Each structure stands twice: as C-alpha cells, then as structure tokens.
Amino acid sequence: MAAFLVLILVLASSVANAGNLCPNFYENSCPQFESIVSNIVKIAVAQEVRMAAKLLHLHFHDCFVNGCDASIALDDTPTFVGEKNASPNHNLSFGFEVIYDIKTHVEATCPGIVSCADILALAALDGVKEVGGPSWNLGFGRRDARTANKTEAERVFPKINSTVAELIAIFSQQGLNARDMTALSGAHTIGAARCITFQKRIYNDKNINSSFAATRQETCPRIGGNSNIAPFDMQTPDIFDNQYYKNLVLQSGLLHSDQVLYDKGGSQVALVNKYSTDQSAFFADFASAMTKMSNIRPLTGNDGEIRTDCTIINKI
Ligand SMILES: *[C@@H]1O[C@H](CO)[C@@H](O)[C@H](O)[C@H]1NC(C)=O
Ligand SMILES: *[C@@H]1O[C@H](CO)[C@@H](O)[C@H](O)[C@H]1NC(C)=O
Ligand SMILES: *[C@@H]1O[C@H](CO)[C@@H](O)[C@H](O)[C@H]1NC(C)=O
Ligand SMILES: *[C@@H]1O[C@H](CO)[C@@H](O)[C@H](O)[C@H]1NC(C)=O
C-alpha cells in the first residue's frame, strides 16, 4: 500500500512538472531564444545533414536518464562520473558542439536564463523540421541537473538485440506506450549506425532481406570494420519520412531491434503496416510521442539550476 501511494505521488509530481513547461516560457526573458536555436541548427544541418539525427538522439539519450535535464552534457568531475562514457553513449559522435555553440550565443544574449535541457529539446525539434519531419508541441522551463548517473545510462536504453517485449517495457518505464515506442523508432528514418551494431544481423539473423544484407556486407565485414557506418534508411537517409517502415516491411531494417517490430505475428506489425502506407499517421503519432518524451521528469521551479556552461555544474 505504501509503495502504491509513493508510486502515485511520483507519477503525480512528474505530471505536474511537465505541466509547468510552457511554450512561451522565454517570451519576456529571452525572446531571441527560438531564433538563435533555429538559425544555428539550420546552418549545422546544412553543413552536415546527419546532425539532425545526432541532435534528436542526444535529446532522447538525455531524457531517458533521470528526465530531460541535460545530465548527458556534463563532463566527468572528481565527484561524479558523467554519462558521456556510458556504453550506449561511448564513441557516439553526438552533436554536442552544436549545443555548446547555441549555449554560447544564448548566454551572450540572455545570460543565465535558458537551460541546456531546453536547448537540447528545441535543437532536436529544429533538426527534425530541417530534414522534412513534423513539428511537435514543446514547452520550456526545464532546468539543468546538478548531477549525472552513468549507471542509469548503462541501464535504460534498448539493446541492439532487444525483443519487442523488452522494447515495450523499456519505453513503458518512461511513461511511453507501445505505440509511442513504435512511432519513436521511426527516428531511424535518418541517421546512421556503426557496423559493430548490425554485424550479427547482416550475417546471422532471421527476417532479413538477402539483397539488403549483401549490400550492407560490402562495407561491414564479418570481422573488423567496427566503426564503418551505414545509414539506417538506405533509400532516403537524409529525409525524415516513413521510409523506415517501408524498409521494415521489406525485411530491410538495419538493427535487429528495428526489424523485431515487424517479426511475423508480432504486436507492432499492424502499426508498422499502417505507418508504411500512411506518412501523416506516422507524423501525428511521432509528434505526440516526442511531446511526451520531452516532458519526461523535467526539473522545474527551484529544482536544478540554469547551467552557465552545459558541461559543468555551476559553482555555488
Ligand atoms: C544511479 O542509477 C542507479 C540505477 O541505474 C541507481 O541505483 C543509483 O542509485 C543512481 N545513483 C544516484 C546517485 O542517483
Ligand atoms: C543481448 O546481448 C547481451 C550482451 O550484449 C546479452 O547479455 C543478452 O543476453 C542478449 N539478450 C538476448 C535476448 O539475446
Ligand atoms: C571506441 O573508442 C576507443 C578509443 O576511445 C577505441 O579504442 C575503440 O575501438 C572504439 N570502439 C568502437 C566500437 O569503435
Ligand atoms: C528485398 O528487397 C528488395 C529491394 O528493396 C525488394 O524488391 C524485395 O521485395 C525484398 N524482398 C522481400 C522478401 O521483402
């Protein structure tokens, strides 16, 4: 009973916090915030189109670890270990440089006002829009954590060999349902993965298209080539569209954990079929799932802080 009450309180407080986020949070305190972010993201994506995927990935990896609190941006310190070297983040070429660049410009314009967590959330949205994807409702007012948790970052993310049931459970721990999970997986319509993450799949997996496997094998050998990258979506790697689901239907998902969404008889098959033929249904569900994800357990009010430098907590 006590545990049940605690759960209710925790859920109630996270909902209340998310409710505190509001779209015009910086209207008076930093009216330039949104244009600064969109201008810098636009330039960054024009220079390197993969940046859109990196920014989206960064926001996702921030939110799943203790909420959207910019904990992911913290470097290691003598008193805690950051999340950057957690195995799901290790060696990922994240778009941190874009986030830091935005922060520098925002601090020059409105010092001490805008959190790194809000920058991460808006940069993800602008990146997706820049490559043709949908927009979503996004509130602001997140504050930045004063700590990070590498152990939690090692624990919370899907594994490349996750089953559908595991994926559903992982997302459900964050308040996201199976439909949200399947829609959010569509983020793999952009971006790329390293050979080491799909090597087993292209040489030794069921439910794979043989011509797709042969193409991927050209640059991902059976042994070695770990860091060679391949696009998640071979057809339109730089456009945010519903091609990811069309690929799944053709057994051409890059990761094992992508293709399991379309395993024969699986719980997500009908939804994948729908998204593969109805891009606006995908966009609508993706947008609503992104709004939910960006509202995961934010720090608001007097919790946390507005970091001056996204990589280190403020001195007090
Ligand atoms: C970090 O996360 C782990 C679970 O992954 C938890 O057991 C631990 O208490 C957390 N540490 C802190 C300092 O919150
Ligand atoms: C997935 O791989 C990990 C090692 O990375 C292993 O511990 C786990 O048992 C695997 N799970 C499945 C379902 O194969
Ligand atoms: C990750 O980076 C380290 C160097 O920081 C390197 O030794 C290692 O091979 C890399 N791993 C992969 C899978 O690329
Ligand atoms: C394999 O991929 C090719 C090229 O996309 C496609 O024409 C074919 O129908 C696919 N095969 C299956 C079984 O999905």
Automatic annotation (TrEMBL):
Binding-site positions, heme b: H188
Cofactor annotation remark: Binds 1 heme b (iron(II)-protoporphyrin IX) group per subunit. Binds 2 calcium ions per subunit.
Lineage top rank: taxon: Eukaryota
GO terms for biological process, alphabetical: hydrogen peroxide catabolic process; response to oxidative stress
One Pfam family named in its UniProt record: peroxidase
Disulfide pairings: C30-C110, C63-C68, C116-C310, C195-C220
Alphabetized InterPro entries for the sequence: Haem_peroxidase, Haem_peroxidase_sf, Peroxidase_pln, Peroxidases_heam-ligand_BS, Secretory_peroxidase
GO molecular function terms listed in the Swiss-Prot or TrEMBL record: heme binding; lactoperoxidase activity; metal ion binding; peroxidase activity
Sites where the protein binds substrate: P158
SUPFAM superfamilies from the UniProt entry: Heme-dependent peroxidases
Active-site residues, Swiss-Prot/TrEMBL: H61 (proton acceptor)
Name of the top EC class for this enzyme: oxidoreductase
Residues reported to bind Ca(2+) 1: D62, V65, G67, D69, S71, E83
Primary role: Removal of H(2)O(2), oxidation of toxic reductants, biosynthesis and degradation of lignin, suberization, auxin catabolism, response to environmental stresses such as wounding, pathogen attack and oxidative stress.
The protein, known as: Peroxidase
Organism of provenance: Zostera marina (Eelgrass)
